[in-house]
Amino acid sequence: MHSLDQTKPISRRDAVETHAAGTDAASHRAPESISRDPRAAKTILFVQYTDPALYPPLERAAWMLAAAGWRVRFIGIAAENSALTLAARPGISCRLLRHRSDPVSRLLSYARFAAACIGKARRLRPDVVYCSDFRSFPIGLALAWTTRVKTVLHEHDSPIVGGGLAASALLKARSAFARRATLCVIPQDERAARFRSATGAARVVVANNCPSLAELVEPAPKRDEALALWYHGSISPDQFPETLIDAMRLLPPDVRLDFAGYETVGNRGYVDRFLGLAEAAGLAARVRYLGAFPERAKLLERASEAHIGLALFARAFREPIAGASNKPFDYLACGLPLLTNDTAEWDAFFGKAGVSVGCDPSRPEDIARAVTWYRNNPDERRAMTERGRQKIRDVWNYETQFAQVIEALNA
Known about the structure:
Helix content: 25-40%
Radius of gyration: 22 Å
Region (Disordered): 1-36
CATH topology of the largest domain: Rossmann fold
Mean pLDDT: 86
Order of helices and strands: EHEHEEHEHEHEHEEHEHEHEHEHEHHHH
Strand content: 15-25%
Organism: Rhodomicrobium udaipurense
Strand order of the largest sheet: 1-4-3-2-5-6-7-8
Number of helices: 15
Pfam families: Glyco_trans_1_2, Glyco_trans_4_4
CATH superfamily of the largest domain: Glycogen Phosphorylase B
């Protein structure tokens, strides 16, 4: 299939109505805006009131659909202070609009975004509109009501909403869209059950946030006499606790901690605080921040140089997370067995598969105990590495997880 367009890195500074080179040449042709050749490639429009580059499952879905001959279009909001971009792929394009943060401009930005999405859908006449965040659901609902387009609701995280008319309206739109959408996609079994109960949705499938088979990384050669812990993703106390510093103080000097990623909006300055604590503890040489990796492939390649992947979440995490978080699957694809919470949820998902060791992330001595076990048992660690990679090959890959969604879209 010849490429119609290709996503390129987009400057956040100039992302008012930025298009990748050639992105909308096809979608603005008059013949397509009037009628569609039934033999033409199918088109899907991803609508997200955030930056799609921050959601690896969307990128994987786009890859799979483009490889199957679909034309893939994204419309979203440019993220501030993010180095991430969608990787360039034939058949995939992205348009990002700028978001304003003050209350009045925020409302106008959303209205402008909704109008842009509906206008693009009417011009493009896609076969599918794919809405994958809370504020895109009203747009999907409007298109489901007024057109014959297939619609997908993909909820990565259950919404946190306060009171007020806007929150109430968004929740009502979520429920209405869930009942009307062609398909609802939820990343975790228990979340799916809760979603059905809350919305009355009948057509719900579960797709765990697994990597693509193409992202299975050949592990880099490792030195057994040293042990490298690795974390990547959003950097906050809820997912990268300060207790790791105290745990590192209890561990031998041949254990180091490397981490990469970006700070969340509510946790600006946390990286500096974490590194400051490490320096104060005499660990500056053993705790390293590697920044944010714009390209996911480079991130996974770097992760493969470590030994253990950290997936330690706040014990009072607000909803079931095992299967929904992409980090543990990323680590396994890179050849890293896991250090996870020692809860029933994590043990049932990863522990029973023989790819993780649990600990209490609030207790430095328990983190150190689990890391010491990995350090002292290199043969078992290597066996866990291979078990994890085999699970990725067999079932924990997005080709398998997303297959039922593609089947529904092609029906």
